[in-house]
Amino acid sequence: MTDRIDRVALGDVAARGARRSPDKIALVDDGVRLTYRQLDDESNRFAHYLLASGLERGDRVATMCANSYRYVIAMFGIWKAGLVWVPLNVMLLPDDIGYIVDHAEARLAIVDTPFLAAAPIRAVFDRVPSVIVTPLGGVPTGAALEFDAVLAGQPSEEPDVTIGDRDLALIMYTSGTTGRPKGVMHHHLAVTTAALANGADMAWSEDDVSPQLLPLFHCAQHSMLMTVLTANGTAVLLRGFDPAKMLEAMQRERATFVFMLPAMWAAVLDHPARASTDLSSLRMGLYAMAPMAEPLLRRLIAEVCPNFALASGQTEIYPATVVFRPREQLRRFGPYWGTSTPIVETAVMDDEGRLLPRGETGEIVHRGPNVMMGYFKDPEATAEARRFGWHHTGDLGMFDADGQLVFMDRKKDFIKSGGENVVSVKVEAVLLAHPAVATAAVVGLTHPHWGEAVTAFVTCKPGVSVTEDELIAHARERLAGFEAPKVVRVIDAMPMTATGKAQKHILRAQYRDLYAPVGAT
């Protein structure tokens, strides 16, 4: 093989794992236990198939899959062939999935069979030149190639493909300010350095076993997968959250490092089976998307694991960026995000590009090798995101006297609900399309399960009325489940600025306790 002596390529995570510990279990997926040698061999076979099918360096391959060992094989095969992985969020509506497939100009797609049962989804993938189906949860159709079949007969040796560390490796689409998803581009070096930094920061080793619960199309869970595999540990692939199944998997596999959302940790903690489950192998509990309530955190530290941490990041700067570490967890409470990982520099900046001292609030900005290459086909948005030589997050924060980053508010109108980015203007546009609605404002309010709940406030046109249930039903017919409002409030008057803009900060303050448990203070 001819290649650069200083090669950095994501496919090498599987190859080096196979050389280092060929018989070590890399992936656990129900009854399947795949070694590093098998992961390397099977991904090589898929890479050879992709190249033989006529795909060329830099071509995009879309995946619409739930977590599975085939999904991971496909991902590594795409990288080994010098191609670009485009994971699709399976919870999006067909219109947005179609937009991404078209925008990315996907030349091949890998789809779990059950997703093709819906005619609108089939219509999307009819536009892709080649489709491969996996049998996960269903019987393969005769209209497309089958994943296992395309591997058969392909060589297990690594293909001779030259890969540069700054070559585009993946495009993860995230919600844009116009409501259309934007393609975040990352190269091989960005993901590699982030995985190494995560491993160093949290002392990952080949002894670690980590359940992968959230979908791998999310940058947070994908970062966890790449970190554990880079460390030569074992990833346990799970599909969907069930506290009983999670507890059983943690005990059976002797899990050492577990990442869940706060509401998931609460469900596991309070499940009847927890008391009889052996969790003594657990060395670290990680959470994200929202702060942990103090009573819940204290119970988890006392009853489940002594070490918990909050990790934060975003798709545009491959996670993690900052970590609120175990030593700080019981020292201070509130919206603390902690301090940077070893490869990230974090600052707070005003609108003129001046870095602010501790105690002053501004936009949180980062720089480091894991910052995105840019937005795919969107140079204007890319330039805006990297003004003054820093990556702009759209989040407001400040550093306290001890140098701990404190999140203050979202500068942009993104709502983070259950790990999904929801664009408020998109939801507002749907509500304003209802014939009874005069004005609409959508905000994210603190919610014990979702982190932030999509919450809408509307006023009605004169002489017209509508029920809140009718508006929720209207929204659910036109939006993905995670985008639809959890609550709609019909109010008499919308708080407005002199220029006619809704004053969302007033709504947030007035209704901040809307989802607080009864009796909470």
Question: Can you put this structure into words, describing what you see?
Answer:
This protein is of the alpha/beta class and 521 residues long. Among the domains are: 237 residues, Rossmann fold; 97 residues, 2-Layer Sandwich (GMP Synthetase, Chain A, domain 3). Helix content is 28%, strand content 27%. It has a 9-stranded mixed beta sheet. β24 and β25 form a beta hairpin. α1 runs antiparallel to α2, α2 crosses α3 and α7 packs across α8.
Summarize the structure.
By secondary structure, the protein is α/β, with parallel strands linked by helices. The chain has 15 helices and 26 strands.
Features:
Rossmann fold, GMP Synthetase, Chain A, domain 3, single chain, alpha/beta, 15 helices, 521 residues, 9-stranded mixed beta sheet, 26 strands
Topology at a glance:
Layout: H1 12-20, E1 25-29, E2 32-35, H2 36-52, E3 60-64, H3 69-80, E4 84-87, H4 94-104, E5 108-112, H5 119-125, E6 130-134, E7 145-146, H6 147-151, E8 168-175, E9 181-187, H7 188-201, E10 209-212, H8 219-230, E11 234-237, H9 243-252, E12 257-259, H10 262-269, E13 284-287, H11 294-303, E14 308-314, E15 317-324, E16 336-340, E17 345-349, E18 362-367, E19 374-375, H12 379-385, E20 391-399, E21 405-410, E22 414-417, E23 420-423, H13 424-432, E24 437-447, E25 451-460, H14 468-476, E26 487-490, H15 504-510
Parallel strand pairs: 1-11, 3-4, 3-5, 5-6, 6-7, 10-11, 12-13, 13-14, 25-26
Antiparallel strand pairs: 1-2, 8-9, 9-19, 14-15, 15-16, 16-21, 17-18, 18-20, 20-21, 22-23, 24-25
